[in-house]
Amino acid sequence: MAPGATIGILGGGQLGRMLALAAAELGLRTHVFCPEQDSPAFDVCRRVTQSSYDNEAALDLFARDADAITFEFENVPSSAVAFLRARRPVLPDERALDMAQDRLKEKEFLRALGIDVAPFHRINRLADIAPALAEIGLPAVLKTRLYGYDGKGQYVLHDAGEAEAAWTAVGETASVLEAFVPFSREISIIAARGQDGGFAAYDPPENQHRGQILRRSLAPAPISQALADQARDIGRQVAEAIDYVGVLAVELFVTEENGKSRLIANEIAPRVHNSGHWTLDACAVSQFEQHIRAVAGWPLGPTARHSDAVMDNLIGDDIDRWPQLVAAADTRLHLYGKTQTRAGRKMGHATRLAPLGSFGANRPVPETAA
Ligand code: AMP
């Protein structure tokens, strides 16, 4: 694809917005397709289609306008992807979506690659939970197979008597019961694979959640180089197994057993990821540019970090801190242009930079000034 070409993006949230901005930096145009009015990406792309994903006339026009198509979220309806794929390249392809849309397939895929996952069981009905608990033990987490993100469709069981409450909480739908992992920290690997098979990965960040929503990513995670290398290998194995093109993230738990750290994979996101937002400010080529390069068939860029970084999500009312954040010399503020603040809604993020070596192993992260 040459400069001036158009990349179609399914989904118009903040990830689509940051992808469109990265494309513009490279002289590429974007056309964003999203059902919601006032989507954050609509502000920054050349063309917009506001339509539902089952509108074939709209999808057809969208495909005609784009040279290649990508997406910012994994729950794109597979019918829309199949329709588009018959007209234009969709990258990454359906293998990535097929696997990432279903937690059961995802875990089976990881296990088949020899990557450790928490023990899990398929749950089709309430009666499946008791025998699965007997094998897995407590605590355990019941998660819906489809449409889960940010902890939605999840229930943590501490007692076998909670089976019915858990089943109701997930909406009485096909699920997976998995062991609760007693992790010491959570990290992720953000990796990219190009159309030429080139591979690149960023230093894994540590990710801190509150209410199952990412609050903070710290780059680099305070882990050994050996563990960081293992995380990178997991990213590569996943990407190569499905001939992946673009950026993907694998969320990983770090556990400590007999004085040894171990990685357990939790989830794969076949897209740019919130825990990689710090790459915008701490790396020469961000995860967003990297994804655009891959979709365009261009070589991947360098992933080296020139600074340490702490990325804080601005969730709900956190956005009220923007005047202090924008005034802080060491902080880069990114706001998503969302007009309505709601509890739990990601309104923007702020990345504080520090010289390399500031946040490494055993060095506490200073509190954010604002
Ligand atoms: P997920 O939607 O699977 O990414 O889960 C969201 C968050 O819930 C994770 O980042 C963890 O903090 C927590 N979580 C999910 N599954 C488990 C588990 N099996 N054991 C411990 N914590 C979990």
Can you give me a brief rundown of this structure?
The chain has 370 residues and is an alpha+beta fold.
What share of residues are in beta strands? 25-35%
How does the major sheet shape up?
A: 5 strands, antiparallel
Whole-angstrom Rg: 20 Å
CATH class of the largest domain: Alpha Beta
Salient structural properties:
370 residues, alpha+beta, Rossmann fold, Dna Ligase, domain 1, D-amino Acid Aminotransferase, Chain A, domain 1, 3 domains, four-stranded parallel beta sheet, 17 strands, 27% helix, globular, binds adenosine monophosphate
Structure explained in plain terms:
The chain is an alpha+beta fold and 370 residues long. The protein has three domains: 6-90, Rossmann fold, CATH 3.40.50; 119-179, Dna Ligase, domain 1 (2-Layer Sandwich); 185-354, ATP-grasp fold, B domain (D-amino Acid Aminotransferase, Chain A, domain 1), CATH 3.30.470. Helices cover 27% and strands 28% of the residues. It has eleven helices and 17 strands. The mean pLDDT is 95. Adenosine monophosphate is lined by residues 118, 141, 148, 151, 178, 180-181, 186, 209, 212, 251, 266-267.
